[in-house]
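Action item from last week, closing it out:
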Amino acid sequence: MRNIKARYIWISVAVCFVLACVLIFAVTKTTGVWTNVVIVLIAMVFIYMTVAIQVASTKTFRYKAKPIKYPTIEYRIENLDFDVVLKRNGYKPRYTPFGAIYLKIVDINAYRVSVINNFEKYFNQEENNEQAPANPELAKCQKFIGVEIFTAYDEDVLRKLPDFSLQGKNIYYCGFYLEENKIVSLNYIEPNETFAELYSNIKADLQVQTDQSSLEEAC
């Protein structure tokens, strides 16, 4: 019954109910062996109805969680060539099968921008890929801020994107997807005092402009 739709199970329950009524009437009109046969059939019908009602009820009244509506924000992009823009603003690139990772370190602050051009390779990275050499400058950093920008995506990527946004004591992260001449975050977290300046800096490095009307408060 797992693969049968709930409405078809309910229909079978209704049919069995009518059949049970007919059999109950029939048992009053039969005698001898036929009476026992009808009683057995009635028992079988009621057993099926009990099981079918339980399955149909589970399928019909299954709890469906409402999708969470997060605050969203979008920024207009002045230059879509991230490679040129970020290298011009002091970021060092590392090219990967899925795109590129750009890193800039200023004093004790680390800025990271990941541009994902192939989301399938991003989510299925080879374990035997050569690891990037450790950056000794990162050891002195006390604050880390980063953004992930998906220039290619599907519905599954958009479903996962809100999980890319987080804010902790020493780290701030946010996920975006590229849509024409703007990048959009599906779960915008307002930077606290620790990351407000760094967030402004990374936006300036990306040469984006905020569209204030795009900020939607979650219900």
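Closing note: The first helix runs from residue 6 to 27.
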